[in-house]
Specification:
Shape of chain B: globular
Structural class of chain B: mainly beta
Low-confidence stretches of chain A: none
Largest interface: A-B, 39 and 39 residues
Strand content of chain A: 15-25%
Helix content of chain B: under 10%
Strand order of the largest sheet of chain A: 3-2-4-7-1-8-11-10-9
Number of strands of chain A: 11
Mean pLDDT of chain A: 95
Oligomer: heterodimer
Strand order of the largest sheet of chain B: 4-5-6-8-7
Largest sheet of chain A: 9 strands, mixed
Number of helices of chain B: 1
Order of helices and strands of chain B: HEEEEEEEE
Structural class of chain A: alpha/beta
Shape of chain A: globular
Radius of gyration of chain B: 16 Å
Radius of gyration of chain A: 19 Å
Number of helices of chain A: 13
Order of helices and strands of chain A: EHEHEHEHHHHEEEHEHEHHHHEE
Helix content of chain A: 25-40%
Distance between the termini of chain B: 39 Å
Strand content of chain B: 35-45%
């Protein structure tokens, strides 16, 4: 019986991260694919699968056209934006282990600062009917929408803005020593966090919010057997899961008892641990940090600590490099770049290859999550050859 | 910035709800099988999966479950210092609305609120809430 471990990431590629790429989303993606193929020691003609996000403006056919790919046997796009990014790797791996495709590029190219800015919300457009129950009240951006859940989390567990600030401080500390990071050499203090302006009072300061970036990223997924012969070896998929819980509404999970929790991430975690791993096996965690409070809530949802305990877990230094569970070692989307979580997957691969800017010694299992606030996904990657 | 169009998109599943606001009614769905009252509109009861339901007008009272003050809104159409809240309706379901208050900091988790209707476009009204004054409660 085949398993996730039979699929691996053999190559990674990216463009520079910037605030104004000056290039199209499509050009960012095809450059990232070219770099990733080279990293994997493969050629364009080896590609027979393409996976992206449904919100990516470059669908598989446009990429295939631009790259002159003549025989694509598998293509897919995962829903729910950043929440589907780990699921895109899962899709690619499923294609590989079933034989639907042999070499799949997972790609995401976005001018997230110079063109479509997700943080600006939906503006005049109420394209989704159910959003009207909320958007007509001026509840328009992800920061605003998700803050209603976070406020309740703060209320029930006695968590403060300064507790969230501790996450931002660690992320910027990690970014400060990562030359790839937008905030390289720019650490912040808790005072900087507390004095940054409110975006949503009393939940999110500016420094709780991820940045906006332009950039493209691609991963090459193929069989582990094939990946072992690639220049950097096989980074295996140890586990993968998506998560969708009852009464889930994109960014508006208001109509259920679990408002102050992350049931989608709980499903992802439970399913990942079912693969035989447990939280203590994880050496590095890349937790989706669209907003700093979600790092804390995910620590609880994934079982790294109990409900309401994450603020103490963070204060005790566990999430820093040198701690028991280094989190977002690249600086995350608060510190490195915001490519819808794809840059976190690159960091996971670098940690497992031993090539990260902030390398964690003896990293063998790295968890990556995607999308609190949306239907979610997560993967565990490993360099253990078995 | 231009004001957003404050007009709902009508679908087969939500028509009753928006039509109800024309008559200044906040209509919820009561399941004909298990009698659970639900919002927002869905064709099937999430509890018992029955597709049979009857619209019922909300009682008009509720309690603030969560509330925030957006300080960096993408549109200035909503003014500054407005409150977006999750309200637990006395009828059962949770509801998103603004809560009117002289001081937005007066809107606290647990505050009692009452329904009123705000006129929007094309004859629709938006169900809104305001703090219940101590004297009148």
């Amino acid at each position: 019986v085949s398993s996730w471990r039979d699929a691996s990431i053999a190559g990674i590629g990216r463009t520079p991260y910037s605030k104004r790429s000056g290039r199209s989303n499509l050009e960012l993606s095809i450059e990232a694919i070219r770099v990733a193929l080279n990293d994997a020691g493969l050629q364009h003609d080896d590609l027979d699968g393409l996976v992206t996000s449904v919100v990516d403006t470059s669908d598989p056919s446009t990429v295939a056209e631009s790259l002159g790919l003549d025989t694509i046997r598998y293509f897919a796009a995962t829903p729910y934006g950043g929440g589907g990014i780990c699921a895109a790797v899962q899709e690619a791996a499923a294609a590989v282990v079933t034989g639907a495709a042999s070499v799949v590029a997972v790609y995401r190219g976005m001018n997230g600062r110079s063109q479509l800015r997700y943080g600006q919300g939906y503006g005049d457009v109420q394209s989704v009917p159910y959003m009207a129950y909320s958007s007509l009240y001026g509840n328009l951006t992800p920061a605003q929408q998700l803050s209603l859940n976070i406020r309740r989390y703060m209320h029930e567990f006695g968590v403060t803005s300064a507790d969230f600030g501790a996450i931002s401080v660690v992320s910027r500390k990690h970014a400060s020593t990562n030359p790839d990071a937008y905030f390289y050499q720019q650490p912040i203090t808790l005072e900087d966090h507390q004095s940054s302006r409110w975006i949503v009072e009393p939940v999110l300061h500016l420094l709780d919010c991820c940045m906006e970036s332009d950039g493209g990223i691609a991963l090459i997924v193929c069989s582990s057997e094939r990946a072992r012969d690639s220049p950097h070896g096989a980074i295996r998929l140890a586990a993968a899961s998506q998560g969708l819980s009852g009464k889930a509404r994109l960014m508006m999970n208001y109509y259920r008892d679990t408002v102050p929790r992350l049931p989608e991430i709980e499903i992802v975690g439970a399913n990942l641990w079912r693969a035989g791993l447990k939280p203590s096996d994880i050496d590095v965690a890349i937790l989706y940090d669209n907003f700093s409070p979600f790092v804390m809530m995910q620590l609880e949802a994934l079982g790294f600590c109990g409900p309401g305990e994450a603020k103490d877990f963070v204060r005790e230094g566990h999430i820093e490099i040198g701690g028991g569970l280094p989190v977002n070692t690249n600086g995350g989307m608060l510190g490195e770049a915001y490519i819808h979580g794809m840059n976190g997957i690159l960091e996971a691969v670098r940690q497992l290859r031993g090539s990260a800017a902030n390398q964690v010694a003896d990293a063998h299992h790295v968890l990556v999550t995607a999308g609190p606030g949306t239907p979610a996904s997560g993967i565990v990657l490993t360099n253990v050859d078995a | 910035m231009s004001a957003p169009v404050r007009l709902p998109i009508i679908t087969d599943d939500n028509r009753f709800y928006w039509e109800g606001t024309r008559e200044e009614q906040l209509l919820l769905q009561r399941c004909d099988e298990c009698e659970e009252i639900r919002h927002p509109p869905t064709p099937s009861c999430p509890t018992c999966r029955s597709v049979k339901w009857t619209p019922v007008a909300a009682d008009g009272h509720g309690t603030v479950y969560s509330a925030v003050i957006p300080r960096h809104a993408p549109s200035d159409a909503f003014g500054s210092g407005y409150v977006v809240a999750l309200i637990d309706l006395a009828d059962g379901p949770r509801f998103v609305a603004n809560v009117d208050a002289l001081d937005p900091y007066d809107v606290k988790i647990g505050s009692p609120v009452e329904l009123y209707f705000q006129t929007i476009e094309n004859g629709y009204h938006l169900p809104q809430f305001r703090l219940v004054r101590e004297a009148s409660s």
